[in-house]
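Subject: Interface between my chains keeps coming out wrong

I've been trying for a while to get a sensible model of this assembly. When I model each chain on its own everything looks fine, but I need the whole thing in one frame so I can look at the contacts. Pasting all components below, labels as-is. Any help appreciated, I'm running out of ideas.
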Amino acid sequence: MAVLYSDAKRKYFSTDEDYLTEKDSDKEAEAFLPHLKKLGVKGVALPADSHLMENLRRIEPSMVINLAVTIRGSFHLAAMVPGILELLGIPYTGTTTDGFLLGCNKFLTYTLMEQAGTPVPRFQLLSRAKAPVDKQLRFPLILKLNGEHSNVEITREAVVENERQLRRRLKYLLKKYKQDVLISEFIDGREFAAFWWQPNGRVYAVERKINLPGNSTKHQFMDYDLVWHPGKTEADYAEYLQYQSFGDKRLSALVKRAALVTKMEGYGKFDIRMDKKGNYFFIDANANCYLATPDKECELSRTLKANGINFTLALKQLMEKNYD
Amino acid sequence: MTNGDQPAAVALPARVAILFSEVKREYFPSEEAYLTEKNADIYAGEVAKYVVKMGIDVALFPGNEAVVNKLRYFKPDLVVNLVDSVRGDETLNASVPGMLEMLHLPYTGSGILGQSLNTNKYLTYQLLQNGGIPVPHHQLVTQPNQLIDPVLRYPLFAKLNNMHSSIAIDDNSICQNEKELRLKLKQMYEEYHQPMLVDEFIAGKEVTVPVLDGLNTKVYPAERIFTNGETDKPEGYKIVTFKQKWVAWQGTTFLKHDDDNLKELARKAFSLVKMSDYSRFDVRVDGAGRNYFIDANANPFFGPPQETHSPYTMILEMYGVNFEEILRRLFVNTMRSASSSGAPKGERRDRPADQPKTPSGANG
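Reply #2:
Try treating it as a single job with all components included. I did that and got this:
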């Protein structure tokens, strides 16, 4: 069994924030190996770099756990990993090239979910700072990088209350990242993470109880610091983010449908907001979401564990599902 | 650029590998799908003859699991990627540019992004529409009995969402009423088990628009003229059926179509759907002269016009660009891009003009 991880070097990433989201990928992949050993499976951690193909040919794994989400710092390039595994005929966990590329484009993901009847906030893709904004959109709006995950640039300034703030933020993002920006209506209310777990076909959800430190606005949401707490520890942020198990058949049905249209395979995560009237809005989809041992602050592993699926069992289920 | 206005000279590659689809009947869901690919090796061989004439060392490889080792052994300077399917599956196409990116080999055609988008007509429509390119009102249908958006006006045109080459396009694709539409959707779903796209049919001319990228992006629009088979149909209702394209292809000729607005739209569309090097758009032009983009083909069927009857190269030849010149431009462009940018194809910063997201079809 080969565990593939992102080859994260600082020089590959345009900002420290980007790099921080990936920098321990090698250690996290190696942490899988004792769990594989418990299952009687010999594992090896491999970087998804330019030697990937020769390494795969040399090792000849019977299966791959694909944790690589960037190659040379690029999300798009990481989509080639499932493609290569398809070409080599090696079974693997996680989504396909198509599913991965969809996940690299929030606009397409929103469009597909909307078309399939999954509720998403009103949205628009912008490429220029002075582009006209659809008059149907109502403030407050949230601005996200169209091709980024891991909450990069989801800060307090990401939610804007008026046109002036919108233009300033838009200009900043376009200039710094040179990529399109998705704007969508910000949904005030509750926030959830819902995980689709294909091995047993179930959905596991948690509510994120968020209380942003020093927050002077009424908006509560998972910002970059809350996810990655740069320079601090998880304990430092414990009072600002707590989890509570959550179950709703309606949500589960929506998640299953969304997983299908966004081409998730094996497992995936949706970030969901609920407005004050109880309506759900899907705000992000992550095929191949962060999967790590539970000690690594992994929402998926912790949620599975809370539902009786410890990490070793989760790996076993994933492998059985994908090997079939 | 050497001095601000002259492009730097780019050397042609010394060794070129040509990859083509490995085709076996059992890989394909239908005889039609198989037919579109079955001579892939022969057509690749025809391309190779022209490459040899350029004094370049050539090798031909099928795009399968053994290709990685073969490329490592042959060490090409450039790869011509003619692979349209992997194990008969068009959606696995993107694995080929993915593999070539990983091997750091310059290659012709679209990157993983462009190839992946190319196998989803609905997503292509959304990107085009968001970028201000006109597309017909449409709806994605995943089941043949799915409710059809009442906003859509008959006649409607039903096609497969994930397949190209006019597969499943026949005289029944234009549906005048719900009964005809349901029948066509049912037929396609039973055979191909994939989502389908339903468009408002645009009665009028059909124009195909080849694009050849380089320092300047050149566009060569041509109207399709049907000289047999379709002649008994009312004016404005002639379409490219599978039979027209693959069986009675001699019945289609091309006529130069001059429209500067269409050329500009095609350049913009080329960038929006992340295409590289060469592509072809299909456009319907209604009675009022309005253009509607109905299909985008990254890496369209490619080969010397006389030997392979590739519409792309036939049209360019009509415009005075012969096959040797096309190859030369492709090679120069690919070598130049590879030497000037570390970014993968499709990640080049191309900014589409913004348009508010306007509802269309079921998306409203």
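Reply #3:
Confirming on my end. Chain B touches chain A through 47 residues (CB under 8 Å).
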